[in-house]
DNA sequence: GGTCAGTCTGCAAACGATCCCGGGATGCGT
DNA sequence: ACGCATCCCGGGATCGTTTGCAGACTGACC
């Protein structure tokens, strides 16, 4: 690989001039700049990012921490982060904590000296642990809220209100709720939103079917509860659970949406691959990642980590109800 | 952040000794080593990776390039790479080329100075372009073969042979083939394997239904061809296509597996979430990633890039037929 | 006690870039 | 012709670490 020194030699100038020709073009005369650029071109010169990082104290690199890359939700967030960072010329380190919150501080520590900032998608880990881990590093949270840290999340309250409004408009008055793990931050948020929406509507009863695992298997269990409780519609914590519910209902001869309507959350790809196609809430997952990077980069540009206004930044992206074939009017 | 200099001062030694105490413990006396280690502990000192990288000429970092992070296949590969690299203490840059082969050389170039080696999962890009892009950097290919580059792939020929053997054993003699994009390396490989297997079995006719998009939508189209050609079983390029086939057949009132058997490939999670559950071929996707990293790291340990034996390394991981409910005996 | 082998440690030079600082050249006005 | 401001450019320090080299010290042996 070619040096700044090599380029300088070929162009007949000093290394300082080479550096300036590339980073501060106005400080060098047009003719020499031309010579330097051509020499750099000929040698295929690219400034060594490591040396640059050492001198500047910035690595021009971002980090991303997710609980599970195989989870389509986080895969999309990752893709969004990746795309945005790439556009800005930032490579990004990706780490998968394998759903183990205790591993996160270590991962963050590993990143600390190698990145300029971190996007953190960590639905379950403890507040204090997190806060300590990210003490001296710009961090943006995804799908989670925390005092004095900037975050990007979906407006779940609104999304879930759209769901209940949809069901209410169809005529449903007894709606089952299949909740997710109690420890999930966004799960609690959705439940709150649901209760608030029910409150506003007045004449709809929320039947809490219980707390289930946020996977296909959890949905299988939830479906039986729904039937037992005699609800006319079920709102699931996420799409995977909703798919489990669909499968189990079909197995028991309960037809959807004629007998029971089912609504998911997230709009993962599979939602359109089943029949009936799933009514669900589309959350802008890659959008979350993109926005998080935008926030992080603007923070880095400003420079001071303790900028209060920035640290309090809370971004809420809109969710959108997608009506498909798994919801209909309740049976007479 | 604490320096080696800070640690040296606190321990009352020179920076050289600090460095040696951490990297070459035998070269320093037990007592001073103890002092240094304690001082380092107290200050929370970690050697600056950037400075280290500059001095050593190695970044202790890996790169991974995939065409699409939202594709479950590559999400799993990424997860495997991630897990293995993390265990070895290597952070990994992840880049998503967004299915655009022309973007790959640029991405690789961006990586070049920042990583010690690259795992490349690039099913479609041109050989020559690739070879040039990776000229001076250790690279391991995933799910793809190329002369003089080490690679890790699945034994597709064997996997597909298991599929055909299974169908043959059930009694199928007219088997439809829904191929993927012609440019896909592994697609061509599977087709070859299928033909070879048919040849060996002797009494089974392969009906090529055409080349379809490797998504749900491609399967919808393929299904109609299958019905038109009167085959009793269909082998799809991948699971998504198989799901499309299932959906379309159901829509047309063709029951699976009574009328037609359907087999996928990859064993993505969704394969178990549909009914009938999909018979498919499980490929060790995270295993591919893990093995690729193993190969890369051992290469880096050896040091010389032009080690012929290593460069020729071709790893073939076994595929496994998973029989579920979408295959059965053909109609009488 | 002097020599020598061996062990331990510090000095200083790298690695490759950036950037402060000062000097030379140039142009302009007087 | 001289002073002065302006513009370009090169020298060299710097970021934090590793490492070759040499000096200092210890202990042992003749």
UniProtKB/TrEMBL annotation, chains A, B:
Gene Ontology molecular function: DNA-binding transcription factor activity; transcription cis-regulatory region binding
Q: Which UniProt keywords apply?
A: DNA-binding, Transcription, Transcription regulation
Q: Which Gene3D superfamilies match?
A: 3.40.50.2300, lambda repressor-like DNA-binding domains (1.10.260.40)
SUPFAM superfamilies from the entry?
lambda repressor-like DNA-binding domains (SSF47413), Periplasmic binding protein-like I (SSF53822)
Is Cell membrane one of the keywords?
A: no
Cross-referenced InterPro entries: HTH_LacI, LacI/GalR-like_sensor, Lambda_DNA-bd_dom_sf, Peripla_BP_I
CDD domains under this entry? Answer: HTH_LacI (cd01392), PBP1_LacI_sugar_binding-like (cd06267)
**Which SMART domains does the annotation name?**
HTH_LACI
What positions does the domain HTH lacI-type occupy?
A: 2-56
Under PANTHER family, the record lists:
LACI-RELATED TRANSCRIPTIONAL REPRESSOR, TRANSCRIPTIONAL REGULATORY PROTEIN
The protein in question is named: Transcriptional regulator, LacI family
Species: Krasilnikoviella flava
């Amino acid at each position: 690989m070619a040096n700044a020194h090599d380029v300088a030699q070929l162009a007949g100038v000093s290394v300082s001039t080479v550096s300036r020709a590339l980073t501060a073009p106005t400080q060098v005369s047009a003719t020499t700049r031309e010579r330097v650029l051509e020499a750099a071109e000929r040698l295929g010169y690219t400034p060594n990012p490591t040396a640059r990082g050492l001198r500047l104290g910035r690595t021009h690199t971002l980090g991303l921490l997710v609980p599970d890359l195989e989870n389509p939700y986080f895969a999309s967030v990752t893709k969004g982060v990746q795309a945005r960072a790439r556009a800005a010329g930032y490579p990004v380190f990706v780490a998968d904590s394998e759903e183990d919150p205790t591993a996160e501080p270590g991962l963050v520590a590993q990143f600390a000296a190698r990145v300029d900032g971190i996007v953190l998608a960590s639905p379950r880990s403890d507040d204090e642990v997190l806060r300590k881990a990210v003490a001296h590093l710009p961090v943006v949270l995804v799908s989670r809220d925390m005092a004095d840290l900037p975050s990007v999340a979906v407006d779940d309250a609104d999304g879930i209100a759209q769901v209940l409004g949809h069901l209410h408009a169809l005529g449903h008055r007894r709606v089952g709720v299949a909740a997710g793990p109690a420890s999930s931050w966004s799960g609690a948020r959705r439940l709150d939103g649901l209760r608030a929406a029910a409150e506003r509507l007045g004449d709809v009863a929320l039947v809490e079917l219980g707390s289930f695992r946020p996977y296909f298997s959890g949905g299988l269990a939830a479906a039986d509860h729904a039937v037992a409780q005699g609800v006319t519609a079920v709102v699931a914590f996420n799409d995977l659970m909703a798919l489990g519910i669909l499968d189990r209902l079909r197995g028991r001869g309960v037809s959807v949406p004629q007998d029971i309507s089912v609504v998911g959350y997230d709009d993962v790809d599979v939602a359109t691959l089943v029949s009936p196609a799933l009514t669900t809430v589309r959350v802008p997952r890659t959008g979350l990642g993109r926005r998080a990077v935008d926030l992080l980069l603007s923070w880095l540009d400003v420079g001071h980590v303790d900028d209060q206004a920035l640290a309090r930044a809370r971004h809420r992206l809109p969710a959108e109800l997608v009506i498909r074939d798994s919801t209909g009017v309740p049976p007479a």
